């Protein structure tokens, strides 16, 4: 084994699964991000890679630290959606098994996953992937993983990896840094370091708007964990979880690595802190009617943008379809003015706009063929302001420097509402989604985004925190957990069961 020139396998399957959303198919993954072998490295080295930022981040960090030999296996990723189709997942596992087996012996494995995936045939495909990697790598080869902080961690994941490193920012702007940490931990393991693991899952399923890293109970737990770090405790993650997975392993969790005593103490302290402050995970949303009134009032006055409404219940970044109409219908009926809204997902309307051309005034029906309880049919007279193939490179926040594919897209005007209509489900988290059409955000008073929280990092140059409001509209990512028919969560669980009782377990170390 060449520890000063290690062969490091790279692989991952990224999906955040919302049980209430339609199944995520192999075709969805292939249309979004799917690479095998050397194609992974070729994409990672592009100026604007169309892949999770961890991969280019990891490659860069490994290059910087010294000689190594990448062994790229398989990397695929998709917008959040329903559980992964079992057939496609099994196909990926088989390819990963074959790829790793062919490449033996390798010195280490880097897994880049989201960590909140479910499959149509099981609740823990991430754990299955980690276990497969461990099986082939053997007990001594370092296996280091990075995950999204919305991951639902299983014991199987913890037991199979030497270390799991979670993002620490929400909006997620530290993906590259955490991947660089993974590169560092691989080098340290190769140099002989080992760590005991402590893991605690709490009976808290926090609505995602309460999991920001800039303020609140979750922010405090992340910071407390980082303040504990030292030579005997090199890594602590407070993982927020993703409630819409609706599986038994749902829940916030703490994973700590280091000397056994320190790791266990850190995990117990942080879990105790989160539990003691659990009321900070209750949501406070603005009712839909009040949101519309605020937008109407804002539009009547001249001046720069003053109001940003987050349609957090219809966030494609959490499995939402991007076609819910509570806000759109409300704003149309109230004749709101100087509103900019994005992104409404309707491939049929985008296509009609492309056929009609810029400047055309046409009658369309939003959700003509796919109406449901949240996304109703909305007939409208629109003017086509702009057309685009939908290929953008993010300029700010979570998508900065990354290639995004919105699919055929249009900017349209209905009354005094200007809206982007796109064909693929991409959450509105980057100003480029508007600027690609020549739309300038400062020309509007109210911005409405179909995004839960990542928009905050993209639009912070236009809106201060106090100008941003999370709206209680309806959709597949509603923050009101009582709106869902959860069937597989561990119960009792807070805040669904407000009288849940719990104390941190005494035995928290994992093998
Ligand atoms: Zn996330």
CATH homologous superfamily identity of the largest domain? Response regulator
Placed side by side, the strands forming the largest sheet appear as: 10-20-11-19-12-18-17-14-13
Cα distance spanning the termini: 25 Å
Total DSSP helices: 14
At CATH level 2, the architecture of the largest domain is 3-Layer(aba) Sandwich
- As residue ranges, the low-confidence spans are none
Radius of gyration from the alpha-carbon trace, in angstroms: 23 Å
- Principal-axes geometry comes out as globular
Number of strands: 21
Task: Give structural attributes.
single chain; Rossmann fold; 511 residues; 9-stranded mixed beta sheet; 6-stranded mixed beta sheet; 21 strands; 14 helices
Q: What would your notes on this structure say?
A:
The chain is globular, with a radius of gyration of 23 Å. Helix 10 (288-299) crosses helix 11 (326-333). It starts with 6 loop residues before the first strand and ends with a strand. Helix content is 29%, strand content 22%. The chain has 14 helices and 21 strands. It folds into 2 domains: 7-281, Rossmann fold; 286-479, no CATH class. The protein has helices spanning 26-32, 38-44, 54-65, 86-103, 125-137, 155-160, 175-190, 217-228, 260-276, 288-299, 326-333, 347-356, 432-435, 455-458; strands at 7-14, 33-36, 69-77, 108-112, 143-147, 163-166, 196-201, 235-239, 253-258, 286-287, 307-310, 339-345, 361-366, 378-388, 391-393, 403-405, 409-414, 417-422, 446-449, 468-472, 509-510. Strand 17 and strand 18 (417-422) form a beta hairpin. The strands form 4 sheets. It has a 9-stranded mixed beta sheet, with helices on one face. The relative contact order is 0.13. By secondary structure, it is of the alpha/beta class. The site of zinc ion (ZN) has 4 residues, from loops. Zinc ion binds next to loops.
């Amino acid at each position: 084994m060449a520890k000063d020139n290690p062969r490091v396998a790279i692989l991952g399957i990224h999906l955040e699964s919302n049980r209430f959303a339609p199944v995520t198919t192999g075709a969805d993954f292939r249309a979004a991000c799917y690479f095998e072998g050397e194609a992974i490295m070729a994409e990672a080295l592009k100026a604007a890679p169309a892949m999770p930022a961890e991969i280019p981040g990891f490659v860069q960090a490994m290059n910087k630290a010294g000689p190594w030999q990448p062994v790229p296996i398989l990397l695929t990723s998709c917008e959040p959606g329903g559980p992964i189709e079992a057939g496609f997942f099994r196909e990926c596992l088989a390819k990963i098994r074959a790829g790793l087996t062919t490449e033996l012996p390798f010195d280490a494995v880097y897994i880049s996953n989201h960590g909140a995936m479910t499959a149509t045939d099981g609740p823990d495909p991430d754990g299955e992937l980690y276990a497969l990697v461990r099986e082939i790598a053997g007990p001594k080869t370092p296996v280091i993983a990075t995950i999204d902080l919305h991951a639902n961690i299983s014991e199987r994941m913890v037991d199979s990896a030497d270390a799991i490193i979670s993002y620490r920012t929400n909006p997620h702007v530290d993906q590259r840094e955490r991947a660089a940490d993974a590169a560092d931990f691989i080098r340290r393991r190769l140099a002989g370091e080992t760590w005991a693991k402590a893991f605690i899952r709490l009976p808290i399923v926090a609505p995602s708007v309460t999991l920001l890293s800039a303020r609140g109970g979750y922010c405090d737990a992340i910071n407390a964990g980082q303040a504990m770090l030292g030579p005997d405790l090199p890594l602590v993650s407070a993982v927020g979880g993703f409630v819409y997975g609706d599986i038994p392993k749902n829940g916030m969790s703490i994973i700590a690595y280091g000397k056994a005593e320190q790791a266990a103490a850190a995990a117990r302290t942080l879990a105790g802190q989160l539990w003691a402050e659990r009321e900070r995970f209750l949501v406070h949303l603005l009712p839909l009617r009040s949101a519309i009134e605020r937008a109407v009032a804002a539009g009547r006055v001249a001046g720069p943008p003053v109001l940003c409404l987050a349609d957090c219940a219809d966030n494609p970044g959490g499995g939402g379809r991007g076609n819910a109409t509570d806000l759109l219908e409300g704003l149309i009926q109230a004749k709101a003015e100087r509103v900019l809204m994005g992104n409404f997902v309707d491939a049929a309307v985008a296509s009609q706009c492309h056929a009609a051309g810029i400047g055309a005034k046409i009658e369309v029906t939003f959700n003509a063929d796919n109406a449901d309880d949240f996304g109703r049919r909305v007939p409208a007279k629109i003017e086509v302001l702009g057309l685009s193939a939908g290929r953008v490179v993010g300029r700010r926040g979570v998508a900065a420097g990354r290639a995004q594919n919105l699919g055929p897209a249009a900017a349209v005007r209905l009354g005094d509402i200007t809206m982007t209509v796109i064909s693929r489900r991409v959450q509105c988290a980057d100003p480029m989604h508007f600027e690609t059409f020549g739309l300038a955000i400062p020309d509007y008073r109210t911005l409405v985004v179909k995004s839960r929280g990542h928009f905050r990092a993209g639009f912070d140059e236009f809106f201060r925190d106090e100008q941003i409001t999370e709206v209680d509209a309806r959709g597949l990512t509603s923050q009101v957990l009582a709106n869902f028919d959860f069937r597989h969560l561990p119960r009792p669980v807070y805040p669904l069961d407000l009288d849940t009782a719990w104390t941190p377990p005494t035995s928290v170390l994992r093998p």
